[in-house]
């Protein structure tokens, strides 16, 4: 399992050119910045990594099957009263909420700065990065296309505003990374629809579902677009390292820009991500779903049941868990 996890991360660390070099991000400055961050991140006194602590943080990498784990396992193990306030894109929640024991979110590892490290266990799921790119593309198209059926929504901008006006509703448009990917895809879908109205439908659409340019952005355009390069490429590695464009720590954005400007510095990010994975309570693989789910049940589920049972017993006897 460890070898497979390392292989997945190695595949994720793609060589990309996203940001041009600039004086603000000259190599010497960036190398020192990234090395300093990596050195502080690699230093850890984590002990008993396979023992469940007070809080469980599910670092949900998008398009890895995480919803299955959340609804089929975590929601069954933890009552709603034990869930931390939903975070996802907000990064503005109070982990000190009484009985807050489970945090499930798309936020990256930087959210650990808001949690008590010594009392928090982290779990995640990884997926072959090529498959995850295909899945992210398909999901972006699927969600964006839902809005085309509403004749009163004439643009992606109007659609986004209408959806966000619904109070109490957590929209996909509010959740990272879809808050960036879906509106972008919506804008493209509306533009292609309007072009068909002006020019009429084409004589033929072709047989390649990933290259239907008359209807939707082709996969190769999606992959090479700056938005995808910024969010999808290296996505899981940056999320585990805490370096996404959604990072909770401002200093992390400088590290991120340096790494994306100077490709060779990516080796430090990979080392930090691998170290973080080694310290997690559990790391599953989408491709080995049955084996991973069984391991999750045996390693995590059993400890949650035991821990909550002991907590309930302590409460009934008058002890205070916290």
TrEMBL record:
It is a single-pass membrane protein. Residues 1-23 form the signal peptide. One of its GO terms (molecular function) is heparan sulfate 6-sulfotransferase activity. The keyword Cell division does not apply. Keywords: Glycoprotein, Membrane, Signal, Transferase, Transmembrane, Transmembrane helix. Its main location: membrane. GO terms for cellular component: membrane. It is found in: Membrane. PANTHER family: HEPARAN SULFATE 6-O-SULFOTRANSFERASE 3, HEPARAN-SULFATE 6-O-SULFOTRANSFERASE. This is Heparan sulfate 6-sulfotransferase/Protein-tyrosine sulfotransferase.
């Amino acid at each position: 399992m460890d070898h497979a996890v390392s292989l997945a991360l190695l595949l994720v660390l793609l060589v990309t050119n996203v940001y041009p070099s600039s004086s603000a991000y000259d190599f010497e400055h960036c190398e020192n910045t990234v090395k300093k961050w990596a050195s502080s991140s690699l230093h850890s006194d984590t002990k008993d990594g396979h023992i469940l602590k007070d809080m469980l943080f599910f670092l949900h990498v998008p398009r890895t099957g995480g919803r299955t784990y959340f609804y089929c396992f975590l929601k069954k193990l933890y009552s709603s009263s034990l869930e931390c306030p939903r975070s996802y894109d907000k990064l503005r929640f109070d982990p000190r909420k009484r009985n807050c024991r489970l945090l499930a979110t798309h936020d990256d590892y930087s959210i650990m700065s808001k949690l008590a490290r010594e009392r928090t266990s982290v779990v995640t799921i990884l997926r072959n990065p090529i498959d995850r790119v295909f899945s992210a593309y398909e999901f972006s198209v699927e969600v964006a296309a839902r809005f085309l059926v509403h004749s009163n929504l004439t643009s992606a901008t109007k659609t986004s505003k209408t959806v966000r006006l619904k109070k109490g509703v957590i929209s996909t448009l509010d959740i990272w990374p879809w808050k960036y990917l879906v509106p972008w895809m919506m804008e493209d879908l509306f533009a292609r629809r309007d072009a068909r109205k002006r020019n009429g439908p084409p004589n033929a659409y072709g047989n390649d579902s990933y290259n239907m340019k008359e209807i939707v952005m082709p996969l190769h355009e999606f992959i090479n677009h700056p938005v995808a390069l910024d969010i999808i490429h290296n996505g899981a590695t940056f999320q585990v390292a805490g370096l996404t464009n959604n990072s909770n720590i401002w200093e992390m954005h400088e590290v991120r820009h340096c790494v994306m400007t100077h490709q060779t510095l990516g080796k430090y990010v990979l080392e930090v991500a691998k170290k973080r994975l080694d310290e997690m309570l559990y790391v599953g693989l989408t491709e080995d779903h049955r084996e991973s789910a069984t391991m999750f049940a045996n390693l995590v589920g059993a400890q949650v049941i035991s821990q909550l049972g002991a907590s309930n017993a302590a409460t009934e006897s008058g002890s205070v868990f916290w």
